[in-house]
Design goal:
By secondary structure, the chain is mainly alpha-helical. The protein has 2 helices and no strands. The two termini are about 20 Å apart.
Length: about 100
């Protein structure tokens, strides 16, 4: 039992759920704004092709980072779910996740 009266599995499940939520919320906001940034980049490209190319590259890097972060958030969310719903995971090695 932890100092809060929960099992370690319950604490890990709660922490994983909170982490997934706190990553997903700003991630969704940034992803929603990527379209606007890409449109602005295209508009700028009509006036400055060199700046357009550089901004496109930056936006591609940002998009790749968002995809990677989204994958981590999904894994953490899955971990939270499994810790909450799979009783046999108590004491299971982390390689099962």
């Amino acid at each position: 039992m932890t100092p809060h009266g929960h099992t370690l599995t319950e604490e890990l499940a709660q922490l994983a759920g909170e982490l997934a939520h706190h990553v997903n919320s700003p991630l969704a906001m940034v992803e929603a704004n990527m379209g606007a940034l890409e449109r602005l980049c295209d508009t700028l490209g009509q006036h400055d092709p060199a700046a357009h190319a550089e901004l496109k590259e930056i936006l591609e890097d940002v998009r790749a980072g968002l995809l990677q972060l989204g994958g981590v958030a999904r894994r953490v969310s899955t971990l939270s779910y499994r810790l909450t719903h799979d009783d046999h995971l108590l004491g299971a090695p982390f390689s099962n996740f």
